[in-house]
Amino acid sequence: MQQPESPIPQWKPEENKILDNRLALNPAKGDPEDKIFHISFKHYNNSLCEIPILFKNRAKRALENLKTIGWCHDLKSLRENGIDILPVTPAGAYKKLFTQSVTEDVELKEHKIEGDARLFYFIVGKMFYIVAITNNHFETKKHR
Questions:
Q1: Domains plus CATH for the chain?
Q2: DSSP string covering 44-68, please?
Q3: In angstroms, what CA-CA distances link 136 with 10, 94, 139?
Q4: Which of 92, 117, 94 lies closest to 106, judged by CA?
């Protein structure tokens, strides 16, 4: 017994091209995704997560910063696009940023989102690892 013809047309690669030739990648130029940073939350510290309490403007600014980071390809382009590259040392209040997966030999950086809101990150190759996004800056002026 023959199956009835499907009411849903089947995709045929030779007939139904997803991309026309104008949108195809130029192999000589390579994939543009290989050149920009890839954002990862693999090492994100959920215990320091303050994304839900970011004020409206700070939340918008943080999202805009993430979009900007996704367009950048090196430290120079981060700087040129207003992303701070402030070094963070594993001392004082910053010590809690360093965990089993973010060890003290990691070159952790800080970006000022807006006001006291901060983004902490490190870069390995083309991977941009976000460690924490905080609404309030860590208290660094108090001494023990």
A1: 33-134 (3.30.2310.20)
A2: --GGG--GGG--HHHHHHHHHHHHH
A3: 54, 13, 9
A4: 94
Residue 130 has phi, psi (to 5 degrees) of -90, 125
Residue with tokens 């940073």: 37
- Where are the alpha helices (H) located in the chain, listed in sequence order? 56-71, 75-80
Closest among 108, 75, 77, 115 to 94, alpha carbons compared: 108
**pLDDT at position 142, please?**
47
Residue with tokens 């989102």: 113
pLDDT for residue 137: 79
Q: At CB < 8 A and 24+ separation, what contacts does 97-100 make?
A: 97/45, 97/48, 97/131, 97/132, 99/43, 99/45
Do the bridges between strand 109-114 and strand 117-124 make them parallel or antiparallel, or are there none, so unpaired?
antiparallel
pTM of the model: 0.74
